[in-house]
Amino acid sequence: MAKSIVLFHEDLRCGDHQPLTEANAIGEVIPVYILDSKDPNQLGGASKIWLHHALTDLNQQLQKKICFLEGDPKKLLPELMAKHQINNLFCHERFDPYGIALQEALKQSIGFEKFHSFNGTLLWHPEEIHKSDGTPYRVFTPFYRKGCLQFGPLPRQPLPHIIPDKLTLIEEGCHLDELSLKSKLPWGKEIIQYWDISEQGAHNRLNTFIEHKLEGYKIQRDFPSQGHTSKLSPFLKWGMISVPTVWAQLNTLTNIPSKDLDHFKSELGWREFSYYLLHHFPKIIKENLNPNFDHFPWHEDDALLKAWQQGQTGYPIVDAAMRQLYATGYMHNRLRMVVGSFLVKNLTLHWHHGQDWFWDCLFDADIANNSAGWQWIAGCGADAAPYFRIFNPILQSQKFDKDGAFIHQWVPELAELPAPHCFQPWLTPKDVLDQANVKLGENYPNPIIDLTSSRDRALNAYSHLKSKKS
Ligand SMILES: Cc1cc2nc3c(=O)[nH]c(=O)nc-3n(C[C@H](O)[C@H](O)[C@H](O)COP(=O)(O)OP(=O)(O)OC[C@H]3O[C@@H](n4cnc5c(N)ncnc54)[C@H](O)[C@@H]3O)c2cc1C
Fold first, then answer.
1. What is the mean pLDDT of the chain?
2. Which domains does the chain have, with CATH numbers?
């Protein structure tokens, strides 16, 4: 009977888990989770909290047999395998540069024949998709429509949920509570109240979304207060439900208009695209994909950055979104674009600042999606928003938060100020402000920047960049 480690990472589930299934088929299973102290992308605050709860659920499912360790997997795993005469290491393939290097090193140290990895993260492996000339795609639509959807073999069918027959706990590990994951701040308790952080919770969320919100998704997905998106992102990020599981379930639906179904699938396609870009252009984590942006005249201003982070910019839709992020670990996609554009184009602060804050606050903080998202918004990424596309927070509120419901929910100081006044309180007559108990500069800030002049400044800088390029 073989003895195998199943190494968990961002695949915290028992359903559609090929390493668990394969290891179980040949014998005894030793589940291991290592909090990696060497990973250059150390977890942000929100991620640690989510991870703690996700591991609690997984450990419960695996009869409390997970061996928890903290340190360098390159050192810990070969030692464990030698000490306990373990024959195999099963895991999912990683797509981040550090993870790829780590898995290569493990193959070398434990032996290629003992290392077994599977793609459990993506529908289409990035190596399989390329243009007819063999080079990688850089534009989403042909990548998805031609590269992925017309790729011969369909995404694989998900595997059944399993609990291995023989699970073994090895003693080296610590208690889950001893990993450096728990937040000492009250924030750690408050932020989880919006979520059921469990594998079952992931499936419930998918089912509820399909039942109530998928129909109408294509149009309604843009309206933050309507909750018409799936909020599956943290579950997908942490692998608590696999993307083949979601895809297969979508393919069984016969009563959803194809425009909604196809649009939702294409959003999963954007996730594939981010991972594809990360795989082919690993520098996107830190460097502009388009090097013309290397000379962009970014500003440094701690006070502006802090106002943005804390939702105190004086632009209510920006502030509402930033406060939603901090309170719930989530931000709606349209608002990620609005606050991102405000940071990089109106405040001209480097996209790294936005990337870092999102990394720290998002439950779905994901090395591929976050990096690609920020490059997209800054205009320096693949198939990015053009530099002249600067989201106007007031027009965005008028269009996507017409009655001000989202602002009222997250900026309580403005709860009594009706739309459209709550979109731009600084232009609101004093008697209306008084009636709504809004005292600008006292209980709600004046705008930290002028939209028109900051927009002109950005356009100027960007057009200078453009002329340098040509
Ligand atoms: C600046 C910026 C940073 C971002 N950072 C992240 C991040 O760290 N993690 C993350 O998962 N997403 C990120 N996104 C993408 C997107 O905003 C979220 O995936 C989406 O808002 C999650 O909400 P949902 O699950 O309700 O989405 P739905 O609309 O229900 O979409 C379903 C799934 O498709 C995927 N998806 C949707 N939109 C995108 C997109 N634009 N790019 C990639 N995948 C997408 C997600 O996995 C999502 O769960 C970022 C976008 C921007 C503009």
1. 95
2. 2-121 (3.40.50.620), 291-469 (1.10.579.10)
